[in-house]
Amino acid sequence: MAAARRRSSAPVMDAGSADEPPLDLATSVAYTNPVRDRIVFHVRGLPVPQGSTRSWVVNGKPVITSSSKGLGTWRRLVADVAQGHAPPEPWEGPVAITLDFGLPKPKSAPKRRRVWPAKRPDLDKLTRSVLDALTYVIFSDDCQVVEFHVRKEYGPPGVVVEVCRIDEPASGRA
Predict the structure, then answer these.
(1) Which residues have C-beta within 8 Å of that of residue 126, sequence separation ≥ 6?
(2) Structural domain boundaries, residue 103
(3) How many Cβ atoms from other residues are within 10 Å of residue 98's Cβ?
(4) Which of 22, 60, 64, 155 could form a disulfide with 102 if both were Cys (CB 3.0 to 4.6 A apart)?
(5) Strands 29-32 and 23-24
(6) Does residue 49 fall inside a structural domain?
(7) Residue 65 lies in a domain
(8) pLDDT in tens, 110-155
(9) What is the crossing angle of helices 123-134 and 71-83, to 10°?
(10) What is the rounded distance in angstroms from the CA atom of residue 28 to the CA atom of residue 33?
(11) Element (H, E) at 72
């Protein structure tokens, strides 16, 4: 009979290789993986969606406004935290991104069962605000994102961002 394994209640950690420190997603940490570059960090604060922009002309000059209050502050916060983990030059080439958004749970939500945030803000608008904040900081243009994993849950407000460089296949034929 096999001995029962004890499960730890400690947070899940990515051990990486023996010469790399463990990665705890609850803190701001970044390291380079020898297989492909990887940056992980946590931005604490209430995520703000990037809503639609409206424009009109006043006295012959265009005026452009965003429908989201606090968008500029949120994007600046994301860019400031990302700058602490940024590569010396913005990455070129394909990248993969994982975003885990935390939103405050409403007081009216049930306490004893799992509830999903299946309401505003829209996940795609939350994603746009973070991608625009990371442009020219981590990567040159958000069109470089070729793989995407996004989730929103009730929890501490903020977002955990993971950006990985994708190795391009060798151009030679076999």
Answers:
(1) 47, 48, 49, 50, 99, 101, 150, 152, 159
(2) 23-108+115-165
(3) 16
(4) 155
(5) unpaired
(6) yes
(7) yes
(8) 788 887 887 888 888 899 989 989 999 999 888 889 999 999 998 8
(9) 50
(10) 16
(11) helix 71-83
